Amino acid sequence: MAMEDPDRKTEVVLLACGSFNPITNMHLRLFELAKDYLHETGKYKVIKGIISPVGDAYKKKGLISADHRVTMAKLATNSSDWVEVDDWESSQSEWLETVKVLRHHHEKLSSPDTTISLQNALPLTKPGRKRKQEPNRHDPIKKKNQSPDGKNVPQVKLLCGSDVLESFGIPNLWKLEDITEIIQNYGLVCISRAGNSIQKFIYESDILWKYKNNIHLVEEWITNDISSTKIRRALRRGQSIRYLVPDVVRAYIEKNDLYSLESEDRNAGVTLAPLQKNASDSKN
Amino acid sequence: MSVKSRIPLILLACGSFNPITNMHMRLFELARDHLHQTGLETMAYGISFSCCHNSFRCPSVQRGKRQGRYQVIEGIMSPVNDDYRKKGLVSARHRIAMAKLALETSDWIRVDPWETEQESWTETVKVLRHHYNELQSKKEFMKNKQPTERSTENFLSSQCSALPELKLLCGADFLQTFQTPNLWKKEHIQEILEQFGLVCISRAGSDPAQYINESELLTKFQHNIFLVKEWIQNEISSTQIRYALSRGLSVKYLIPDSVIAYIAYHNIYTEESEQKNEGDLLQPLKLHNTAM
Predict the structure, then answer these.
(1) Which of A90, B114, B222, B265 supports an S-S bond with A66, CB 3.0-4.6 Å?
(2) Where are the alpha helices (DSSP H) in A137-244?
(3) For the Cytidyltransferase-like domain, which residue ranges apply (chain A) (predicted)?
C-alpha cells in the first residue's frame, strides 16, 4: 500500500536553451543558483539540469558549428553530477522554437522507460531508515508506477537570464502563443543581477503578470558578467579567458582555434531564424 | 620589440585569500595581458588603458598580440599571516593549501608561504622588500648556472638582462585604503610606489584615476601605477563565498572544484570560524596606534 508522503516535493528538471557559443562559468552558475533557490523554497526538488545548445540553423552572427558547441558543453559538465548536455535540438535540420524543445523534453520525461531509467540512476535509501535533510542529495522516486494523470512526471522549467525574459518584448522574436504556453504549462526560473529591473518588466506585461507565480526570480548577488560575446572578444584580442570558462573548454578552444575574426563574421547580414520565420508566418 | 629586450616583471599579490577565488586568479591574468599589450606610446603618461580600439588596424597586431614593454615572468600570491587578526580569517595552513590546489593548473603563478611563516604580521612593504631581495640573491646564484626551463631562471641567468621589476598587484579598492587612518605609514606608501609600483585592476564604472588625483603622493608617482580595466565583471568576493558556504549554497564555478572539495573535507568555514578574531583590532591598526 503506497502512502502519500506529506513532505512530497515537486520534482523539477531545469532546461537551458541558448547558443553556448562558448559555454562559460556564468552559464554553469545559473544552474547552481536555480537549484539552490528552488530547494530553499522547500517545495521543489531539482533532479536534473539540461543544456540544450541551439542548432546552426539559428543563423546568429558568430555562431560556430553545433558539434563544437555541444562538445564544449559536455566537457564543461563532466564535473557535474546532475547537469548534462542534450543534442536533440542541435541535431534538427531546422531551427526549433523553444516551446518545442520544452515539449520534447517533457514528453521524454513522461515516457515510462524514462521513469524507470531515472529510478535506476538515483541512489537508493534503505526502507525504514529516516532520511536526513541533505539539500543536495537526490531522493529516489518512490512510486514505481506511472499514474494515469502523469502526477509523477517531473516538471520541466526553462532556466534563463533576465535578458531572455526581456527578449519576449522584441517584435517577431517570440510568438505570443509560445510565450503563453511556456509560462502557463512549464514555468521559468530567471536569474537576474540584484537591482535589475526585471520585476518592472513583468509588471508591465499582461501575459507575464497573469502567470507570475510560474516565474521564479532568482537574484544573483555575485556580479558575474561572463558573456560568451566577451569571451569571443577576448580570444580575438589574444587575451586570457582563464578562470572565466572551465579549463577543459579553454584548452579545447585553443587546440581547435575556434574563435577568430572570420568565425565572428559568420551569418553576417543573415536574418535570425525566428525573425525570418515569424515575419513570413505573419504574411500568410 | 623582441621578448629579450622587454623588461622582466614579477607580480606580487598580498591578501587574505580566505578562500582563494577565480577572481583572484583573474587579476593575475588581466594584469599580464595588459602589461604585455601596453604599447610604448601610452607609457609617457603613466596611465595606460586596456587595449584597444586600434587593434584591428595596427599592423603589429597578430591575433591581438601587441608588443608590450614588459615581459611578465612570474606571479606570486602571498597570503597574509594569521596575526593580521581579520575577522573570520582561518588558519594559514588551510589558506596556503587551498591556494596551492587552485594554482595547480597555472604555469606561472605560485603561492609563497614566507609571510605566513613569520612570527607576526608583516607590513606589505617588507614583503615586497623580501621578495626583491630573493630575486637579487637568485640572480647572483644563477649567474654561473645553465639556463633551465623556468622563465624566471632564464631571465636571471642572462648576462645582459636587467633584474626583474617587482610590482604589487591589487584591486582599485586597495588604492582607497591608503586613505584609511593608521592603516598605512606614509613612508611605506611612498616606498611601494617609488621603488616597486602598482598594477591596479578596476571594474567598469569605478574610477581609480580619481583616487590618484585626490592624493598628492599618488599623483607624484602615477607613472608607476598601471591601471587595468576589467570589462568582464566577475566580482567573486571571499566574504560572499563564506556566506554561501555557511548557508549550504553552491559555490561551484566561482572557486575551483579542488578547493570546494578541500573546504568540505576539512570543514573549514563554519559559524565558529566566522567569529574568529571577533572584536579584535586589525593588527596594522594596533601597531600604528601604539607607535603614536
Answers:
(1) A90
(2) 162-167, 176-181, 198-203, 206-210, 228-236
(3) 15-233
A125 inside domain: no
What are the residues whose beta carbons fall under 8 Å from the beta carbon of B188, sequence distance 6 or more?
B123, B124, B125
Summarised one tens digit per residue, pLDDT across range B30-63 is: 999 999 987 543 333 333 333 333 333 333 333 3
Which residue among B29, B55, B65 places its CB closest to the CB of A242? B29
* Chain B positions in Cβ-Cβ contact with residue A22 (cut-off 8 Å): none
Residues of A in contact with B231 (CB under 8 A): 230
User: The domain containing residue A250 runs over which residues?
Assistant: 10-111+153-282
Q: Which residue of A has its CA nearest to B65?
A: A238
ipTM surpassing 0.85: no
A49 lies in some domain? yes
Cβ B234–A35 below 8 Å, yes or no? no
- Closest partner CB to B232 (pick from A80, A136, A230): A230
**Sign of the C-alpha dihedral computed for residues A70, B63, B172 and B132 taken in this order:** positive
Closest-approach residue (CA) in chain B for A239: B33
CB interface of B with A, residues 43-62, below 8 Å: 51-52, 55-56
**Residue A48 is assigned to a structural domain of this protein:** yes
Q: What CATH number did the domain enclosing A277 receive? A: 3.40.50.620
Smallest Cβ–Cβ distance between A242 and the set B25, B240, B248 belongs to B25
Per-residue pLDDT 10s for chain A (284 aa) are: 455 565 689 999 999 999 999 999 999 999 999 999 999 999 999 999 999 999 999 999 999 999 999 999 999 999 999 999 999 999 999 999 999 999 999 999 988 665 555 555 555 444 444 444 444 444 443 444 344 444 578 999 999 999 999 999 998 999 999 999 999 999 999 999 877 789 999 999 999 999 999 999 999 988 888 999 999 999 999 999 999 999 999 999 999 999 999 999 999 999 999 999 988 877 66
Maximum CA extent, chain A: 65
Nearest to B33 among A231, A239, A243 (CB): A239
